[in-house]
Amino acid sequence: MKAIVAMTRNRVIGQNNRIPWRLRGEQGWFKEVTMGHPILMGRKTFESIGKPLPGRRNLVVTRTGNFTGVDLIRDLRTFDPAVYELDGGEIFIIGGAEIYAALLHRCDGIYLTIVKEEFAGNAYFPEFESEFKISQTIRNTPEFDILCYTRCSCNEQ
Predict the structure, then answer these.
(1) Domain spans of the chain?
(2) What digits encode the pLDDT tens for the residues 58-95?
(3) DSSP string over 11-22
(4) Percentage of the chain with pLDDT > 70?
(5) CATH code reported for the domain at 2-151
(6) Closest CA to 38 of 92, 109, 81
(7) Where does residue 82 fall: left (phi above 0), alpha (psi -120 to 50 degrees), or beta otherwise?
(8) Neighbours of 152 (CB within 10 A)
(9) Would you tell me how many other CB atoms lie within 10 Å of the CB of residue 50?
């Protein structure tokens, strides 16, 4: 599994279940990377989007909710990504904050968009730098940078 996220330098990823910015080209990047792959999100993220994202198998984590057109994941402790990663379709975790916090330890990579402008928010991406290192700079723009991180043995000497 990989996480894909956009955050400000102070880790903001959302404000009241919405992304607080609109950056030209950033959503196109998200679509390009995730198209054809399963995407996993929490209930609040799904509700903020309002519908399943086309061209991707949508996995929604919810204990009690029922939504049409998606696969429901009732318990992350028993979630098996291999069931959904058939034919090389690696799962992308797309949020929100609770889902990232619960599953980041199971990810082997992160596609991270760093938003250069600061925005107020009440949802934050968890600390990851102690377990991941930058492996590639994908894009630099005046408004944002896109970096690829891979899991490392950063604490080993």
Answers:
(1) 2-151
(2) 999 999 999 999 999 999 999 999 999 887 789 999 99
(3) -EEEBTTB-S--
(4) 97
(5) 3.40.430.10
(6) 92
(7) alpha
(8) 13
(9) 6
